[in-house]
Design goal:
The chain is of the alpha/beta class. The chain has four domains: 1-34; 196-486, Glycoside hydrolase, family 3, N-terminal domain (TIM Barrel); 497-538 and 553-568 and 596-614 and 699-821, Glycoside hydrolase family 3 C-terminal domain (Rossmann fold, 3-Layer(aba) Sandwich); 623-684, no CATH class. The chain contains 21 helices and 37 strands. The chain has a six-stranded parallel sheet. It has a six-stranded mixed sheet with strand order 20-35-34-27-21-24. Strand 2 (49-53) and strand 3 form a beta hairpin. Helix 2 crosses helix 13 and helix 7 (216-232) packs antiparallel against helix 15. Mean pLDDT is 92; it is low at 1-33 and 621-628.
Length: 832
């Protein structure tokens, strides 16, 4: 009896399983019937679109109450009509596929397109080369064609100034037309990417300058206006926004940050990215992704500001971020803020990793991995992807697979590529310059992954990572229309309202630190122009991102300053006496500046001396092992016997790191082999710089201030600041100090902005987004990862140069901004 009951029960279960399977199959079949859709036959149904030829040579297709398409009739790409609407037949099958249907959301379209590419084409899409092609108006060279044939689709944007709009428009349109004509390949337009740029866009403050306004709405306005300018040039991916916390005052990349305070950084970063990514109508309403939207890469996740001793991770001597104060998760906070945007794009769409290896206070590694972030499963997969549930596109920082492969130096090139994909990265920054060779190497990495993980797992990794990349093509609309309109580009170039808004932001970013006896005050109508001495400032020749010769220009352009003052300045010798250049010609030396006499300076009403904060140099600045060593090091790191770690100084006069606060044993360091008693073992390298002296390249700036102060009663000092500095060396000798924040690919504050404030046309309102240290001892004593933990400079008027300090005509600024942000810093807490 039990047997019969069990048998009946089993039949019932089998029937229910089969029934459920049939239901699933039914719905699956119905879904596949929906897509692809056969194109309408000629003449069937109401036509809901119209096309026209544009003056720039491409064809515009306007759908009734729908998306406007752009394509080239000569490329071979065809339109198909479904339900009366026009769609681009991107894969040439005369069917409407999901990824071609502009009525669907961008996530659905991106996911549907993944299977259209061959594995080799997918690998091409993961390349992000700097690009060695030549840009011109009417032809594409072989290099760009080969790159497009390999399915490179994220390319460096063309540079150029005011007279280059036509070239940019033509170049973009030629590239997109060429892609449409590539046979045996589904058409996916190219996306132009770029770092923050200048010259052909309105001149806004640096990120640090935006932070000095303490006004997130200015950051939002910057993002809104700049994105419109970029899209007019066809650029739709910014390799930014940088939002690392500047908790280490010696770090080189501080100008690109929003300062050291987590709360301020979170608010400004969120506003900036929201502005960049959303498109707005004429009434200022947020429309979400649209024609003015630019994808942003929050960088450098999970924060790169806790650099040991200030050494920068772009060089091997700066490979370690350290967290002696236990604040790793505080550095993650700005990134979390940008995963929760107030606008309709909802979250930042992309991210870039940092280079660094993370080290905790006890010397252990963050997440248990002694590798850079692009190789860290803990930081990317476990934390960013899983804990924070963020599924955006991750690009490695550039060079991560070659010169900056910290912790994985012994892996083969293919193993490194596989390791980044396993960790959670989607594309390779800076890779692809070798063309087919780069793609072949990526294919080798895939096959290696198949042998280790299985084909199913590798296919899953490849499809998901490609889907994330494709979202940044679909969300901005360029898949439907990648073409540029010259009239739009020309009318957007340096749009007057953008230029004016940028200048107003520059004014609000200037911080007045000192103003003895109100030397800077509201202008008096009808006052005569004062006679002002503006000395020449010597700037040594520089290498690095760009190479510039030595110069000695007046601190302000005499023509611009002449609008406000009767300007006098120094002269230059007829013949230079400095070291000969490559052509054998003498270069400019500080001795070639013929200074005004004390008697001549004394006849002036006051002097304005413009200087830069102390700049750290390197005695050799040599190339070694493919890596340029920077300030804070000397020699070649590949030869450790000759390598020296130097302190990075924030003062002009020579600084020797021999106080009790200097670490005798560094927290970070490579694991190196040493022989002891006939055996070889791995030990951590000691990168301490105790007892060494830093190298400052612009000590002459201090001399210039002091000598000028000795020759005249009233001196105003203007500092172009990229890092905090020690003011003790000259502050007591001068009457007023103004600070502007530039550098790190952002231009310095314009002359006119400083002069408007000096002459009392505009009242200063900026606040310090960083602490100014009292001395180098407090710099050594502070923890690299902890915000606002230094003793600050107190000036001769009794003011403390702390975070959120600034003066206006009435004195110390106390307003709603200081009430909100000048509080105890928030800290991040590790997720459970």
């Amino acid at each position: 009896m039990n047997y019969l009951k069990n048998k009946a029960s089993s039949k019932k279960v089998i029937f229910m399983v089969l029934f459920a399977a049939l239901i699933t199959l039914f719905f699956a079949c119905n879904k596949t019937k929906e897509y692809p859709k056969q194109a309408d036959s000629p003449g069937s149904g109401k036509i809901k679109w119209i096309e026209s030829q544009t003056p720039d040579g491409w064809t515009s297709v306007k759908n009734e109450a729908g998306t406007t398409l752009g394509y080239s009739k000569s490329s071979g790409l065809k339109l198909i009509q479904v339900d009366g609407y026009a769609f681009k037949d991107l894969n040439r099958n005369n069917m409407l596929d999901e990824f071609e249907d502009w009525r669907l959301d961008f996530e659905t379209r991106a996911k549907a397109m993944v299977d259209e590419f061959t594995l080799e084409q997918t690998m091409g899409m993961k390349m992000n080369p700097f690009g060695s092609w030549k840009v011109n108006q009417d032809t594409l060279d072989t290099i760009i064609k080969e790159s497009l044939d390999l399915c490179y689709r994220q390319l460096r944007a063309p540079r150029g100034g005011a007279n280059d709009t036509r070239t940019k428009v033509n170049w973009n349109n030629m590239v997109q037309e060429y892609i449409e004509g590539i046979e045996n390949s589904t058409c996916i337009p190219a996306v132009w990417i770029d770092d923050p740029r200048s010259g052909d866009v309105s001149s806004w403050p640096s990120n640090l300058g935006l932070a000095a306004t303490f006004d997130p709405e200015i950051g939002a306005q910057y993002g809104r206006m700049m994105s419109e300018e970029w899209r007019a040039m066809g650029i739709s991916m910014q390799v930014a926004t940088q939002m690392d916390l500047a908790t280490e005052p010696r770090w080189k990349r501080i100008p690109g940050t929003f300062g050291e305070d987590p709360a301020l950084s979170m608010d400004i970063a969120r506003a900036v990215i929201n502005g960049w990514q959303s498109t707005y109508d004429n009434q200022g309403n947020d429309l979400g992704w649209g024609k003015h939207s630019v994808n942003n890469q929050m960088k450098h996740f999970p924060g790169d500001g806790a650099a040991e001793g200030g050494r920068e991770s772009h060089t091997r001597d700066g490979a370690y971020n350290i967290f002696p104060g236990g604040q790793f998760f505080t550095h993650v906070l700005p990134f979390l803020a940008c995963m929760d945007l107030p606008g309709k794009t909802k979250t930042v769409s992309a991210a870039m990793t940092n280079y660094s290896v993370g080290i905790e206070a006890d010397g252990s590694t963050v997440g248990g991995e002694r590798v850079g972030t692009s190789y860290s499963t803990y930081k990317l997969k476990n934390l960013l992807r899983e804990k924070y549930n963020w599924d955006g596109y991750i690009l490695t920082d550039f060079g991560i697979l070659t010169s900056k492969n910290y912790g994985v130096e012994n892996l083969s090139p293919a193993e490194k590529r596989l390791a980044t994909l396993e960790a959670g990265c989607d594309a390779f920054g800076g890779e692809g310059g070798d063309g087919q060779e780069s793609v072949d190497l990526a294919m080798e990495a895939f096959q290696l992954g198949v042998s280790r993980l299985g084909k199913a797992k590798m296919d899953e990794i490849m499809k998901k990572s490609t889907e994330r990349m494709l979202r940044t093509h679909f969300n901005i609309g360029i898949v439907d229309n990648p073409y540029l309109d010259f009239e739009v580009a020309q009318s957007t170039f340096l749009k007057p309202q953008h230029v004016e808004a940028a200048f107003q932001a520059q004014l609000k970013s200037i911080v007045m630190l000192k103003n003895t006896d109100g030397i800077i005050s509201k202008a008096t109508k009808g006052a005569q122009k004062p006679k002002v001495y503006i000395p020449r400032v010597f700037v040594a020749a520089a290498g690095g991102w760009t190479r510039t010769p030595a110069s000695a220009k007046p601190g302000f352009d005499p023509e611009v300053a002449g609008e406000y003052f009767d300007v006098v300045t120094d002269k230059l010798a007829d013949k230079y006496t400095g070291t000969a250049d490559r052509e054998g010609n003498p270069t400019l030396s500080p001795n070639d500046i013929i200074r005004l006499s004390k008697a001549e300076i004394a006849q002036c009403d006051f002097a304005i001396v413009r200087i830069s904060n102390p700049k750290n140099g390197n005695p050799t600045f040599m190339e070694s092992g493919g890596m340029r060593e920077g300030p804070g090091s000397a020699g070649s790191i590949s030869n450790r016997e000759d390598y020296t770690y130097l302190p990075i100084s924030l003062q002009y006069r020579p600084y020797t790191a021999n106080s009790e606060f200097v670490r005798r044993e560094s927290l970070g360091g490579d694991m190196i082999e040493v022989s002891e008693n006939g055996t070889t073992k791995l030990v951590k390298e000691n990168r301490s710089y105790f007892g060494k002296t830093g190298i400052i390249t612009n000590e002459s700036h201090l001399d210039l201030v002091l000598n000028t102060a000795a020759a005249t009663e009233k001196v105003i000092v203007v500092v172009d600041m990229s890092n905090p500095m020690v003011f003790t060396e000259f502050e007591p000798e001068v009457d007023a100090i103004l600070v502007g924040f530039g550098g790190n690919r952002a231009a310095n504050v314009p002359d006119k902005a400083f002069l408007e404030i000096i002459t009392g046309q505009v009242e200063p309102s900026g606040l310090l987004p960083l602490q100014m240290p009292a001395n180098m001892e407090t710099v050594e004593a502070q923890f690299e990862d902890v915000p606002r933990d230094m003793h600050c400079h107190v000036d001769s008027n009794g003011n403390t140069y702390d975070f959120a300090f600034g003066l206006n005509w009435s004195g110390t600024i106390k307003d709603e901004r200081t009430a909100k942000y000048d509080v105890i810093p928030i800290v991040g807490v590790a997720p459970e």
